[in-house]
Amino acid sequence: MVKMNVLYQGEKHCELTHGPSGQIIATDAPKDNNGRGEAFSPTDLCAVSLATCMLTVMAINAEKENVNLNGATAEVTKEMQASPRRISRIGVSLRLPSSLSSEWREKLEQIAHNCPVKLSLHPDIKIDVAFQYA
Question: Rounded to 5 degrees, what are φ and ψ at 115?
Fold first, then answer.
């Protein structure tokens, strides 16, 4: 179990504290939902969590075999629907090292598609994942 805390600071701003590390993240409501868009929105965090989970579980598995994914990146897009207001689509574009063998590419793509965050998201959310090797 991991304990985290949230402090509502007013004006739709929250401060999130990660218990084990003490790291802090701020959130704000997006401009299209009565906020100022000054920080990640809660749904932004959900969407970007998908990409960070994919990169993390790929790295965990790659490092076991001394395969280096340093410098890998992800670009995330998120689309909302109005009623009910929720995430309707998340796009993740992963860029991985071109030096990866075809065997590792296939293995890492399968790992990404089975990351814990993806498996936790509601099946109605459309998830598009693209892999690039550069």
Answer: -70, 155
> Would the CA dihedral through 132, 50, 10, 32 be positive or negative?
positive
The answer to whether the predicted template modeling score (pTM) of the entire model surpasses 0.85 is yes
CA-based nearest residue to 80, from 41, 26, 43: 43
Q: Cα separation of 78 and 32, whole Å?
A: 13
Mean pLDDT in residue range 45-53:
98
Query: Domain limits of the chain?
Result: 1-40, 41-133
Q: Are strands 86-96 and 126-133 parallel, antiparallel or unpaired?
A: parallel
CATH fold for domain 41-133: GMP Synthetase; Chain A, domain 3 (3.30.300)
